[in-house]
């Protein structure tokens, strides 16, 4: 406040104002060109303090500061730095500079009853040491406590007598680092000698950083005056009217003629002073290295440094590759309060009789999880029991330190629930409860305000629907074992296999010859008869046999699967869910239910259910009654609930209801604690010890075993019983590849055998005529095959049979055959004058064709 007045005066007179003790961060924002602060801003130390807190893993810190501008201006910077390392500031302790010892003791007792054991003291020197002295008196300088002093107190602590030093044992301090030099050592010797000569009654003659800044600031001013010169040190006197207006002598000083030049020279001064490198950056000394000291005995011991580049380091010249790393503190050994070298954990459950207030929900149903036993005479709770309570109690008994707690029902005076589960969780955020124990689900929006322990139950939300008996006779039930896409695919493959066998057998098998209608019927008959393995036609080619073998294997798998599925539909599958798809509920606008106070309500709203479709229930009996009524009569068609509740409901009403997919993922049940509570990690660790051991099985058997034993399949989900194409596409792929490969091989062999005849066609022959020619050849019997030689030409004398291969002597007499006529027709229609085959040449080619060479 004094600095503000002096700075305003300096601006008016244009005279540079130099201060070596004003460290308030608020002065940084003044931006006065005539104000020079030969000191570091107090905000530069907050990074060093937060690095210490982070290095030791402390999650909660309470600042204690003086109620004035000096104290208040630092707190926003300190809390912001702590928030960056995810450390909470649960409370701000503010004391007046004129606070009495009783007021200080009262505030410290309040802090003693809190969990936090890490305190940062930022106050004027006199008040700060009174706080530490009173803390030592009431027992807050014992083992488990952490005290950190800011730079002003750390710099000045040696100025107090030896009695005050006793209250500083184990305290950490942060202050600007002053590097050693020969000049500093010589100056310190001269200073002590002169100080003790002038003040013989004072033994403490330590040189602190404020004195060094003052010395360097005077040296810098002298250098600036030498550069600016002293030619014109006069002032321009203001026009002061004497008509009854009072003025001060300072206001009559006027405006300096040399002030602006002196200000410029002072801004450019750079030298190596006693305090280190001295130069002004934006009117103040730049932030430099901080040293961290530990006060013990009658002195202090340096335990490390903090630099803007490397963070915490043990040695000033060492490099810390992991800046601000919390894996291992980069500091030397520290003697903590209580004369111990064990690092305090930073928090402790108060042992003054205060118990943790544990909120528990009040439930009408599903009492296996949690139930409040009421004393109706006093209208208070006698006890709380249930699965959740037993798990929490088992975890707390394994804690390495005792924790006192008591359960408080979240209820109205008439023993009704005081709100939803979200309302109960909010009470922890507001500080009304220290924790919540119960069947509270871990969800994302709640974790924004509170912390959860690890889950101790299975997770998920599913849809519960009634089961109805399928007594209605269905004339088309035989179609249900296979889906429509599988039926269509199977039919297409029957046709494709028939066509493939006809191609492979047409030229060599008389069963596949004859009029077109007969050939088509035979092919279809052969293919579809494989469905019951009743095909009578023989296949004679190896390719056709290969195709039929593969296809019969596919058909066998299909028939066996169809038979098994149909058998299940007709015998086993007597019960079916009333609803199998959530979209059906939305389309029909049917009502659905959810447990009262559950987060499932928000999930259903997110699934586009209208508020009029939602109905609540509190007990399994209410849920059963809603199902009995049905959606049309004010009931529900389905319910959405968490899997632990569903398992309990199914155990009670086994065989009447079932769960239907899909299942919505959740994290399960967890215990609720305030954000940053140190208890969360320890309790989570003990929950793992409970759930992974025999104790959890005993707790489950105590509350659930009897009910679940009567309905062992209560956790199964109903899905479609029809077989789909996705289960058989591999078989169809094999059949398709094998059939296509056989067709390709047959086409290659056929064209190779007929290459002599095909080469006789003129090059000008159109593609359509070539196709007709190939089809005519394909339609003829292959007389070279063993089937026709065996059946029609066993007797070589029967040369009158036209189906027998002709003898060489009769080739010249066969020029009137249909094949030769077709060749002659093709040749005669060409425009080439060179292509006029003689009958003899065509007969030879026809004979080659008939022999199949």
Automatic annotation (TrEMBL):
<dbReference type="Pfam" id="PF00060">
    <property type="entry name" value="Lig_chan"/>
</dbReference>
<keyword id="KW-0812">Transmembrane</keyword>
<comment type="function">
    <text>Glutamate-gated receptor that probably acts as non-selective cation channel.</text>
</comment>
<feature type="region of interest" description="Disordered">
    <location>
        <begin position="794"/>
        <end position="816"/>
    </location>
</feature>
<dbReference type="InterPro" id="IPR001320">
    <property type="entry name" value="Iontro_rcpt_C"/>
</dbReference>
<keyword id="KW-0732">Signal</keyword>
<dbReference type="InterPro" id="IPR001828">
    <property type="entry name" value="ANF_lig-bd_rcpt"/>
</dbReference>
<dbReference type="GO" id="GO:0015276">
    <property type="term" value="F:ligand-gated monoatomic ion channel activity"/>
</dbReference>
<comment type="similarity">
    <text>Belongs to the glutamate-gated ion channel (TC 1.A.10.1) family.</text>
</comment>
<keyword id="KW-1133">Transmembrane helix</keyword>
<feature type="transmembrane region" description="Helical">
    <location>
        <begin position="543"/>
        <end position="562"/>
    </location>
</feature>
<keyword id="KW-1071">Ligand-gated ion channel</keyword>
<keyword id="KW-0813">Transport</keyword>
<protein>
    <recommendedName>
        <fullName>Glutamate receptor</fullName>
    </recommendedName>
</protein>
<comment type="subunit">
    <text>May form heteromers.</text>
</comment>
<feature type="compositionally biased region" description="Polar residues">
    <location>
        <begin position="829"/>
        <end position="841"/>
    </location>
</feature>
<dbReference type="InterPro" id="IPR019594">
    <property type="entry name" value="Glu/Gly-bd"/>
</dbReference>
<feature type="domain" description="Ionotropic glutamate receptor C-terminal">
    <location>
        <begin position="355"/>
        <end position="706"/>
    </location>
</feature>
<dbReference type="Pfam" id="PF01094">
    <property type="entry name" value="ANF_receptor"/>
</dbReference>
<dbReference type="Pfam" id="PF10613">
    <property type="entry name" value="Lig_chan-Glu_bd"/>
</dbReference>
<keyword id="KW-0407">Ion channel</keyword>
<dbReference type="InterPro" id="IPR017103">
    <property type="entry name" value="Iontropic_Glu_rcpt_pln"/>
</dbReference>
<dbReference type="InterPro" id="IPR044440">
    <property type="entry name" value="GABAb_receptor_plant_PBP1"/>
</dbReference>
<comment type="function">
    <text>Glutamate-gated receptor that probably acts as a non-selective cation channel. May be involved in light-signal transduction and calcium homeostasis via the regulation of calcium influx into cells.</text>
</comment>
<keyword id="KW-0325">Glycoprotein</keyword>
<feature type="compositionally biased region" description="Low complexity">
    <location>
        <begin position="798"/>
        <end position="813"/>
    </location>
</feature>
<keyword id="KW-1015">Disulfide bond</keyword>
<keyword id="KW-0406">Ion transport</keyword>
<feature type="region of interest" description="Disordered">
    <location>
        <begin position="829"/>
        <end position="853"/>
    </location>
</feature>
<feature type="disulfide bond">
    <location>
        <begin position="654"/>
        <end position="711"/>
    </location>
</feature>
<keyword id="KW-0675">Receptor</keyword>
<dbReference type="InterPro" id="IPR028082">
    <property type="entry name" value="Peripla_BP_I"/>
</dbReference>
<feature type="transmembrane region" description="Helical">
    <location>
        <begin position="486"/>
        <end position="504"/>
    </location>
</feature>
<dbReference type="GO" id="GO:0016020">
    <property type="term" value="C:membrane"/>
</dbReference>
<keyword id="KW-0472">Membrane</keyword>
<feature type="transmembrane region" description="Helical">
    <location>
        <begin position="728"/>
        <end position="752"/>
    </location>
</feature>
<dbReference type="InterPro" id="IPR015683">
    <property type="entry name" value="Ionotropic_Glu_rcpt"/>
</dbReference>
